[in-house]
Each structure stands twice: as structure tokens, then as C-alpha cells.
Amino acid sequence: MCMRWLRWVAVLLAVLVSGPASAVRNGELVVLTATAAGQPVAGVLVDVTGNGSGAQGTSAPNGEVRFRLPGGVYRLAALRDGEALVTVEGVRVTPGSTARQVLVVPEAPEVLSLNEEFLQRIPAGRTYQSAVTSVPGMAGGASNENSYVVEAPTPAPPAGQGAFQQLGQQLDSVVQVLPATGADPRPADAPPVRRDVHHHGVAHLQAQRPQEVIDAVAALAVEAGGRVDRADGQSVEVRVPVATFDACFRAVLALGEVIDQRVTAEDVTDQLQDHGMRVAALQRKLDRLVALLAQARDETQRLALLDQIARTTEQLDLEKTQLRTLQDLAALSRIAVVVSPEASARVASGAAAEGMGWLGALSPFDRSAPGRRAVPLAVPEGMVALSARGPFHAESADGAALWTLAVPNEPAGDGAFWRAALRDQLGDGFAAPTERALGGWSCLDVDQAEQEAPYHWTVCLRTTGRWVEVAQAYYPSPAHRQRHGDAVELALVGGAS
């Protein structure tokens, strides 16, 4: 009897002890799906994978999804109708604590139903093409301002690209035409729409001989059919064909001990289509103007046409340059590698203790630093925005970049306070940081230490109520800063586009 009682006690103790221990092995991950303006987006499927486990959940009306997960590093994907809207790599969950991650997603597209009653009330032709142009907000804006799905009445509009082009000629908006059933008008056996995605991998490695690792990364990129954009004894930036990115990045991580690594993926499909449509529309306009010029007999009319031709040609050249930049970014993914001879923690213990740990996530190579709200800016001349929605991120064809984020202003301080905190955070990692004011921003300019042609990194901070807004500009060399610096600063001073 005594032995049986002791066995029951042992079982009870095991249950009591194992319960809390098991709980401690898990951590909480809170994901917020929101627009670039910070508005929650409900109904987004969030997929979490990694660390030998996975989970899915749909965002609530407040935009939140909560997961209980074992400690480890995870990949998050926000999906709508089976299509990935955004992915974030390297999200760490710590046992016994709560991790938070914001996924910036576009709002669901507006659906306009053109029923018979609607058509009768529109003082225009009774076709869906003419009716849609009478709807407020459907015409007259920039081509990246509006995106609509038009649900047309029966009989259904012509399927496929023809209907799309027909509306595209009338509207500055991007419009997709669906039949009244809401079904996709494309043939059932039509191939899926190809998505163009720009991948950006960042790795911080530790190795006994850093230069050998740098050389190995460069050789790997060239062998894969890519190129080396910049290299020195401390870091290297390469571009590799998008189809080889995963394999190349895994090979890079195998070259040393991984201190930190992160991958971001930005879907540039919509931007490519948008700029492609603009190029086609401007080319048609230019052709019409040239034809009119050949027929003009009045000198005043000829001068006016020549002026329009000059302005249209300038716009067309700019759009072609931006289209080529996007095509290059979609074709060649970017990998940046920093190699240290010994490990060093980037986040100072003092900063982490005071709730400033996000400062340690800032990097000239990493565009995925945590932020809870987007800060839109005008796109600098010579750069192109990688996405019309989501966090602001613009790049040039030669590798200069400008990106923004916003985090809670906790502890409360002004831009100068946060600039001083960042300078303390950077320590001796950069050569002679300099401080300056730029419009309403407090900026810190830093150069890579001990290099003949150092890269340059500018971090500007300002506070707006509850938020600290952060803008980062990266120039791979002094020549890049000379080419793009003025345009970047003009975009910062000019504010939102």
C-alpha cells in the first residue's frame, strides 16, 4: 500500500513539474497585419514555419494573430487568396517571452459591381467601359494611386488582356475586369501569373580568415552567373540570379559561424506592370505627337507640339530607366555579407535594458529592421520604389538605397535624443560619425572604417507624437553618394509623396 501511494505521489510530482517546464519551452508570437498607414487589416492568413514546426492563423478585426511556439527562428508569410503578400524571415521567438512582428499588407481591392440599375443612373454610354470612368476616384489620378477590380454585368466583358487594355487606355487606374459571377475571366487552363520577387539576404559571419570568406562569396556569385557590386576586407555585396538565390545564400552561411542572418522578399510584379503600362502609354502619346507635328502647318502649333514632344520624351526616358532598374532587381537578387574575425554583439546591454534594442537592428545592409508603421517619402530622382504599398523602400540601378520605418517613441525623446542613443550604440564600428540637422530630421552620417573607398550610411531620426520615424540611406561608395545624395536629401526635406 505504501509503495502504491509513493508511486502516485511520484506521478503527481512529475505532472506538477513537467507542466511549467513545458510551458517555459514555448514563447508567444503576436503578429499584426496592417496597412502602411498603420490601419489593421482583418482576414489575412498568416503562415508560420520553421524550427521543425508550423502554424497558421487568420488576423482578427484588430489585425492580430497570436501563436504559442517553441523557442527558435521562424519565417512568416501573409497570404490572401493563396497568394503571398509579404514574407519576413528570421523572426525569433524566445521561451517565456512575447515576440511581436508587424506584416505590412495592402488592403483588399475594391470591387465595383456595375449592375443594370447603376448603368441606368450613369449619364453616359451604357457600356461598362464608359460607366466605370464616371465613378469618382476611378480616373484622373496617377497610375499607382488606384487599383480596382470591376465586376461587370452580364453579358461578361471580353476575357483576358483585351478587356484590360481597353480599360487601361481610358483610365489612369489599374483595373481588372471580372464577369458578374466574380470568377476569373482567364481560361481555366491558363498558366498562373508569374510573380517577380526581389530577394535581399544579409549575413553576419565569424571566421578566422575573413578575406578568404569574402573571396569565396565573390567567386560563388560569379560562378552562379551573377556579379560582385562591392567588396573589401570586412564585407562584400553580390548579385545572383533569382533562381539561384536560395542555394547561394545557403552556401554563404556555410562559409563561417553565423552571427546573424535575415532574408527579405519584395514582390515587384505590380510595379513592373505599372511602369510597363506607363512606358507603353507614353510611347503611344509620343507617336501621336510626332504624327501631328508632321501634319502641322501653323508655326505656333508646331512650337507647342515640339514643347509637348520634349516633355513627353523626358518622361518616357525616366520611366524606361525605372523599368530597367526594376527588371534588374527582379532578375538579380542581392546578398550582403559582413565577416568578423571574432563575434561581437551588436546590441549594447544598456540600450537593450532601456527598451532601445531596435537600434541594434539598424544596419546599412539590412532593409528589414523591425518597424510598426511605414513612413512614405517622395521617390528620389534616379531611384525607383520597390513597392507601391507597404514599407517605403527605393533603390537605384547601381545599388544606392533609401528606406524608412517607425517605432514607438519609448522612452520619450526628440530626434537629437535618439541620434545620441544611436551614436552610442554604434561604438567604434564606424569612422568618425558626424551629426547634422536636415529639415526636421536629426541625422548621423557614418563611413566604413579603414577603407580607401568606404561605403556611407546616413541615419535620420525625428519624432511625431508617439512615434520615432527613421530614414536610412546607403551609398556603396563615395561616388554613389555624389550621384544620389542631393536627390535623397531633397526627398527627406520634401516629406511624403
- What is the C-alpha radius of gyration, as a whole number of Å? 27 Å
Strand order across the largest sheet? 3-2-5-6-14-11-15-13-12
> What characterizes the major β-sheet?
9 strands, mixed
Distance N terminus to C terminus? Answer: 81 Å
Bin the helical content: 25-40%
Poorly predicted sequence stretches spanning 5 or more consecutive residues: 1-23, 135-185, 343-353
Total helical elements? 11
> What is the mean pLDDT?
76
Coarse structural class:
alpha+beta
Shape: globular
**Strand fraction:** 25-35%
Q: How many strand units?
A: 22
Oligomerization category of the chains in this entry: single chain
Can you give me a brief rundown of this structure?
The chain is α+β, with helices and mostly antiparallel strands.
Secondary structure topology:
Layout: H1 2-24, E1 26-34, E2 45-50, E3 53-58, E4 64-70, E5 72-80, E6 83-93, E7 98-104, E8 110-113, H2 116-121, H3 128-132, E9 147-151, H4 161-170, E10 174-178, E11 197-206, H5 210-223, E12 227-231, E13 235-241, H6 245-253, E14 257-267, H7 269-295, H8 299-331, E15 332-340, H9 349-353, E16 383-385, E17 393-396, E18 401-408, H10 415-426, E19 430-438, E20 441-448, E21 456-464, E22 467-475, H11 478-494
Parallel strand pairs: 1-7, 8-9, 9-10, 11-15
Antiparallel strand pairs: 1-4, 2-3, 2-5, 5-6, 6-14, 11-14, 12-13, 13-15, 16-17, 17-18, 18-22, 19-20, 20-21, 21-22
